[in-house]
Amino acid sequence: MSATPLAFSLRDMAGETRQFPTGRPSLICFVKEDCNTCNLTAPVLEAFHQAWGDVANIWMLGQTADGNAILKDRHGLTLPILDDSALRTSLAWGFEIVPAVFWVGADGAPRAPLEGFVRQEWEALARQIAADLAAPPAAVHWSALPDWRPGCGSKHLDPDIHDRLLAEAEGSPIRARRIEIAPADDIDEFMFDQGFSDGLPLVPPTPERVLRMLSGTTRNAQDIVAVVPPNMAPATVEKIAINAVMAGCRPEYLPVVIAAVEAVCTDAFNMHGVTATTMGASPVLVINGPIRARIGMNMKLGALGTGNRANATIGRALRLVVRNLGGARPGGVDRSTLSSPMKFTMCFAEYEEGSPWDPLHVERGFQREDSVVTAFAMTSGPVQIVDQDSRKPDQIAGTLGLGLEGMFLSKIHRMPVDALLVVCPEHVKTLTSEGDYAKVRLRERIQAVTSRPLREMVSNEVSGAGIPLAAAAKMTEAQLAAPAPKFASDKFIHIVVAGSEAGKFSAAFHGWVTGAAGSAVVSRKIEC
Amino acid sequence: MTTILDPTDERVPVARQITARTGDISGVIGLLDISKPRGNVLLDELQSLLAARYPKVEIRRYAKPTFAKPCPSDLRLRIKSECSVLVEALAD
């Protein structure tokens, strides 16, 4: 506790409010009824009260209201017993063991507390009090008492209670509006009714849970991390933590969620457009670096699916931030025609250890030991690319290219649109079976195998999509014969590795409007 | 009693009243193309109809740089300072 005694106002058993400090020297002793050592010291405190109660406050602060009555009857106590069953004063005074006895002398400065019972210490305390008060000693038969008895853990430190007390205490970082839900109401139904949910149940963001979530970051709870589109709402660390609790995150995931919010709330990522488009885009988060292992992310078997709490809840927390803070709701600013399950969550880690290439974050300019989140705006995926037959590197690379050709519509080529290719370990093994197979070469191969004469893109009876007939009519034969690869540039092909060691199934995510006109890929370092 | 913390931004939206309807078309009409395909076709047609019916009304054309992002503040302020009415062509 601090050098200055902490003020409190508590009721005694007569219902009278006792204020502290009073201007008199005081002995303040915290106890709980079910502690044997507290019971051992109760008669000692009563003797102190009998000796010095006229010139000093000898107060017992009990941690349960029922227990106070029992202590009073059991020991025939006449000293004031104050009700600290709310435990706020116990928390504020900052001890760990009961009995905890503080002597606050006439100078107003508390001595270091005695916790538990060590007879010599209590005797010394009694001598000091008598000296300070210039009063005769208390009638305590010290030799009848044991030399030493351990105390009990203070009730305010019970795991179920402590975080709630911290959340409610003065100095708590919690600033968000508190919503009280009556016992007769179903809390889960209430949260659905308020529109907080993405359609799935939520973890209630109680103050104590949010406080625990905030322990996952060193950032100040009121720091503004980003301004969240479309409503341009300031996202404090606390508000992100509330949504992370609802999503089911553990505190150690919070730095990843914060970095993801930072990434998508940039002008480059354009979360407003990603939300609003009828095409149904959503952030896809790829996590790189040491934090993957630290928080137990999945990058192997089933990496893009269910079953891993970190993968599932980090992506969901981001979506809830955009929904609840940004105000992005289906039918409101979210105008997706069909939408996508990725709007629940889409987050996975790259299997860097299974990759022959620099991991995504290193390609994007970070250090390998950095932990980084990279956000892609994607409209569909993961779309499986199946090839269990190819045994040569160029064959697998060709398959991956043909798999990507279906993006949006297979006949549309020269697309200035991002794709995220997730290569599985078995396909990696085939790619590298004859030596290095650089990403540059893979991208070139994808472009080569998808190159078709431009005339195949012209609107026709099979599909009206593509180059309008009028425009095609103005093109020369040479122009129409020119080969057009799937992508306008190799730079639109992003490649990572993930998945289990067994299975020749890679996958692709397909982008949206890429670049300054739409959304650019954004990476943010995760500050742990 | 269970207490939870508000996950929203806690802001109360400002209630705005729509501009009074005069039954008259006058001043400067802005036509904003959000740059979706064929939005210009719709606005061209609308412009010719307005010009025929209200020859004294001035029509100004604007275009967003991309449909995929909110209207830039500069353009929004320019439209507000120059126009009495704005028609926005949204869809393709």
Walk me through this protein's architecture.
The complex is a heterodimer of chains A (528) and B (92). Chain A has 528 residues and is α+β, with helices and mostly antiparallel strands. Chain A contains 18 helices and 23 strands. Chain A folds into two domains: 8-156, Glutaredoxin (3-Layer(aba) Sandwich), CATH 3.40.30; 262-458 and 474-525, no CATH class. In chain A, the strands form seven sheets. In chain A, strands 15, 16, 17, 18, 21, 22 and 23 form a seven-stranded mixed beta sheet that branches. Chain A has a five-stranded mixed beta sheet with strand order 5-4-3-7-8. A two-stranded antiparallel sheet of chain A has the order 1-2. In chain A, helix 5 crosses helix 7 (207-214) and helix 8 packs across helix 12 (309-324). The longest helix of chain A has 17 residues, at 36-52. Chain A is elongated and about 115 Å long. The termini of chain B are far apart. Chain B is of the alpha/beta class. Chain B has a domain at 28-89. In chain B, 27% of the residues lie in helices and 23% in strands. Chain B is elongated. Chains A and B meet through strand 12 and helix 8 of A and strand 1 of B. Strand 12 of chain A pairs antiparallel with strand 1 (2-5) of chain B, so a sheet runs across the interface.
**First and last CA, distance of chain A:** 29 Å
Question: What's the rounded overall pLDDT mean of chain A?
Answer: 95
Largest sheet of chain B, in brief, is:
3 strands, parallel
Alpha carbon gap, first and last residue of chain B? 52 Å
- Sheet with the most strands of chain A? 7 strands, mixed
**pLDDT averaged residue by residue of chain B:** 90
Stretches of chain B where pLDDT is under 50 for at least 5 consecutive residues are: none
Number of strand elements of chain A: 23
Tally of helical runs of chain A: 18
- Structural domain count of chain A: 2
How many separate helices of chain B?
A: 2
